[in-house]
Design a protein that fits this description.
The chain has an 8-stranded mixed beta barrel with strand order 16-17-19-20-21-22-23-24, surrounded by 5 helices. A 5-stranded mixed beta sheet has the order 12-13-11-14-15, with helices on both faces. Strands 6-5-7-8 form a 4-stranded parallel beta sheet, sandwiched between helices. 42% of the residues lie in helices and 16% in strands. The protein folds into 4 domains: 1-67, 2-Layer Sandwich (Alpha-Beta Plaits); 70-307 and 319-365, no CATH class; 442-593, Alpha-Beta Plaits (2-Layer Sandwich); 603-855, Alpha-Beta Barrel (TIM Barrel).
């Protein structure tokens, strides 16, 4: 990026990358699209720029600026350097009556002479006239015919059109003709500064030799900004070396042709071209073809600025309308006509001009040109093809949109600009639209379609093939979080990509595949034996090359299409329901959706649909299972349990509605209902003079995932003013598999409110010593169910003895739940277990029965 934007013309941070500069630029590669601080901008490549300044004029954001020598000029003038000023003829057209005051002021600052470049313009016209006269009869392919007055045109041809170098008329520009005359014929050796409208004149200044040396290029815009606070009415000066009339007009578009054509018969062709765009240069290049020898004009003038030099990029934005400026031009032109005599006699015109400059030597005003052309690397067709592919232009229509929003004339030009490094595909609005759609429908990690695209593609596939039957398969990676935790997220991402590639090969080009999220994939294929074998043939995913030593397995649910009217989303849902029915850590499992699953799904939907109404009807009630001191057999607490009793007396089993509520999210609502009922009942018992025992309430895994539960519990405590030691909160050991740091933090905050925390069902799952070590709990509840499930009672008793002993050393209160026999109770008492809960003493009972038990305690 450092090699850009460091030349005569540069881009500021106001640029927003609108591409207008590119669309108006005549120099390929002069504008380079970059991204700086996250913002797209068009920087200037100074090695490619011809300094025409068109981009400065067309930029509506004020983001293109340029350099000149204005500050240096005034600094060195004030230091005493002897400097004379060359003033472009457009200065007098633009500033009119103000011009003498401005010139008078700069002379008061120490400017030695003020020369009007109109004099040099007439010398340039004289020299060009004589060149054309002496070469007009030469073969068209040998003579020069292009005006070299405009430095931007010369620079452009030197950079990009070496075949036209010999077609440039070898005569100096008006500026250099003026400086040559001053140096050679007036013997003025003072430093020279050129004041004009042109940014590209800086190139002439830097390339000038000793015989025509100009040291400073000043533009009207910067010059007048420097003098913005000056009252010019107190000063006055006239320019020296003023032209007779012709030279005063050259700054206006078409004036040079009007002047030169007056020295030739009418049949001679003089052409004016507007702008240095590729079309103009192609037209002019045609004249070098021998097939067009009879049509080559005698003279061609290329106007870089649309309305001539007075509209150049270095001109102030005038408050005066163009009509006023044009009126000044007409006034000067009429004065010229009045003094010129019969301008229709071209021979007489030649004689007058030659007579005027008879003491000048034409060779003093001749010039040469520099070949600056650098052959561009030829971009292979394969590269353009690759660029088009990356831009998602995969059809001929997309490759020929040619909207020019990127700034180039065609999509092909844009592709070449990208290949040369001048631009970025993100500047193509059609690519960005396609990319947005692509991103909307593509999983960014695996590169395969996402859920939206899968539904769309499968719907299209089924519609296009009504005679075929399809299967949709939904799969999820088993224990994918473990892979991420052990091998790292980066490796986990590689596993996802590997699985995506494997499944893609299995379904082939006639199937569909998608990555939904996490470890969840979906595929669709024709329900035939070939594809079923492909899918079932994937026993597991061998990811050892990726650094995962254990076999990676997935559980797949498959739904086979029954008719073409089924929605794709419904089929995905059916496949997903089947998916969780079977899993293995050693191999992939495949479960096909059955009517039994459908009935279960309908049942779950019915339960879900009734839950909200049940909440409104207060159908969820509390039951209590007493907890007894193992030594005294006195009630010392109770676990509150949720029961769903409908108004008609029907009881919905907790084994039925609890798992469903965990899946549909209602569990969080139930938690709050149970907590509130527990606090409310405890408050009422205290008010009634009942001596209550602590009751414990459950916190589901869903509620533990949010900090909201802290706020809710604190609010309930304050609302009912219940002593914190009368309410305990239970969590299950499975909750520890989530975000452990967050879980510990939330439990600590509950304990800070004064509540005890119990670990429920310890031993029912894959218990970890980390739970005992890390979790800030007060009560450990042992699940005696594993004793009933084990055939080896002796080993089970040893495990319980060890856990109880360990818990005692950690100062935990030990509660054994699920105790059903006296033998179990005796063993637990002897082991040191504090509290016993189970059907041996009492099943869960309603509030009245529980209060009766407390009274009789």
């Amino acid at each position: 990026m450092a090699r850009f934007n460091n030349g005569l013309i540069f881009t500021t941070d106001s640029c927003i990358g609108c591409n207008r500069c590119i669309s108006e630029c005549s120099a390929a590669g002069a504008n380079v699209s970059i991204v700086k601080d996250g913002v797209a901008r068009s920087y200037v490549n100074s090695t490619k720029c011809n300094h025409c300044g068109k981009c400065i004029s067309v930029c509506t954001h004020g983001a293109r600026k340029y350099l000149d020598d204005t500050e240096l000029f005034f600094a060195e003038l004030s230091s005493g350097r002897n400097i004379s000023l060359l003033v472009d003829p457009s200065f007098f057209i633009i500033y009119g009556d103000k011009a003498p005051g401005i010139l008078g002021y700069v002379k008061s600052l120490g400017v030695n002479h003020v020369y009007n470049v109109s004099f040099g313009a007439e010398i340039s016209i004289w020299a060009q006239m004589n060149y054309l006269v002496s070469h007009q009869d030469e073969p068209a392919q040998k003579r020069a015919f292009i005006s070299a007055d405009c430095p931007a045109v010369v620079k452009s041809i030197e950079l990009y059109y070496p075949e036209l170098l010999d077609r440039l008329i070898p005569v100096k520009s008006p500026l250099l003709c003026t400086s040559t005359y001053i140096r050679t014929y007036l013997n003025d050796s003072t430093a020279l500064a050129y004041l004009g409208p042109c940014v590209a004149a800086k190139d002439e200044v830097e390339d000038s030799s000793d015989s025509d040396k100009v040291q400073y290029n000043l533009t009207y815009l910067h010059f007048m900004e420097f003098l913005k606070d000056i009252d010019f009415s107190k000063f006055s000066a006239e320019a020296e070396l003023e032209g007779s009339g012709i030279g005063k007009l050259i700054s206006v578009r078409g004036a040079v042709i009007n002047c030169l054509s007056s020295y030739f018969p009418r049949e001679k062709l003089f052409f004016q071209y507007q702008g240095m765009n590729s079309r103009t240069m192609r037209m002019i290049s045609i004249y070098t073809d021998k097939n067009y020898a009879g049509n080559v004009p005698l003279f061609v003038d290329i106007a870089s600025c649309e309305f001539g030099c007075q509209e150049g990029p270095g001109v102030e934005k005038s408050e005066e309308p163009f009509s006023t400026v044009y009126a000044k031009f007409i006034e000067i032109y009429n004065r010229f006509l009045k003094n010129a005599g019969d301008i229709d006699d071209y021979k007489q015109n030649r004689e007058r001009l030659n007579s005027r400059f008879q003491n000048l030597k034409p060779e003093d005003f001749s010039r040469t040109f520099t070949d600056r052309f650098m052959q561009s690397y030829k971009i292979p067709d394969a590269t353009i093809e690759e660029i088009f592919s990356s831009m998602l232009k995969d059809t001929p229509e997309k490759r020929h949109v040619d909207c020019r929003s990127c700034g180039y004339n065609s999509c092909v030009d844009m592709a070449y600009a990208i290949a040369y490094g001048y631009n970025r595909k993100e500047n193509c609005i059609h690519y960005m639209n396609e990319e947005m759609v692509h991103r909307l429908n593509t999983d960014s990690l695996t590169g395969i379609p996402n859920r939206n695209a899968f539904v769309r593609d499968v719907s299209r596939l089924i519609k296009q093939n009504p005679d075929k039957r399809y299967a949709i398969c939904s799969g999820d990676i088993n224990n994918f979080k473990v892979i991420d935790d052990i091998a790292g997220i980066e490796t986990g991402d590689k596993v996802l990509c590997f699985i995506a590639d494997t499944l893609k090969k299995a379904v082939g080009k006639n199937g569909c595949i998608a990555h939904f999220s996490g470890g969840n994939f979906a595929i669709c294929f024709e329900y035939v034996s070939e594809y079923m074998r492909n899918i079932y043939g994937i026993t597991y995913f061998d990811c050892r090359p990726l650094g995962v030593e254990m076999p990676v397995t997935m559980r797949f649910g498959i739904y086979v299409q029954h008719n073409s009217s089924e929605s794709v989303q419904t089929m995905i849902n059916y496949a997903t329901i089947s998916m969780d029915k079977n899993r293995s850590s050693q191999k992939n499992t495949f479960t096909i959706f059955t009517n039994e699953f459908r009935e279960q799904m309908i049942h779950n939907a019915e339960i879900t649909s009734q839950m909200e109404k049940a909440i409104d009807n207060n159908e969820f009630v509390l039951y209590f299972q007493p907890q007894y001191n193992s030594a005294t057999k006195k009630i010392v607490g109770a676990e509150s349990l949720c029961r769903w009793i409908k108004r008609n007396g029907t009881v919905i089993s907790p084994k039925d509605f609890i798992p469903i509520s965990e899946n549909n999210g209602y569990i969080r609502v139930l938690d709050r209902i149970i907590w509130e009922k527990a606090f409310e009942m405890m408050s009422q018992w205290i008010e009634r003079g009942i001596n209550p025992v602590p009751i414990s309430v459950n916190i589901s895994r869903g509620s533990l995932e949010s900090d909201t539960l802290i706020y809710v519990i604190e609010q309930l405590k304050n609302k009912y003013n219940v002593p914190a030691d009368l309410i305990h909160f239970e969590i299950t050991e499975s909750a520890y598999s989530g975000e452990q740091d967050k879980l510990i933090e939330r439990i600590e905050k509950i304990r800070e409110l004064g509540f005890k925390i119990a670990m429920d069902d310890f031993g029912s799952g894959y218990s970890s010593l980390n739970i005992l070590k890390d979790l800030p709990i007060d009560i450990l509840k042992l699940d005696m169910g594993f004793m009933r499930r084990s055939k080896n009672t002796d080993k089970g008793q040893i495990v319980i003895e060890s856990v109880v002993g360990l818990a005692k050393k950690l100062n935990f209160i030990i509660v054994a739940e699920g105790v059903e026999t006296q033998e179990q109770a005796d063993f637990l008492r002897e082991t040191g277990c504090d509290i016993i809960q189970g059907y041996l003493y009492s099943k869960p009972v309603a509030e009245p029965q529980f209060l009766e038990l407390i009274k009789n305690n």
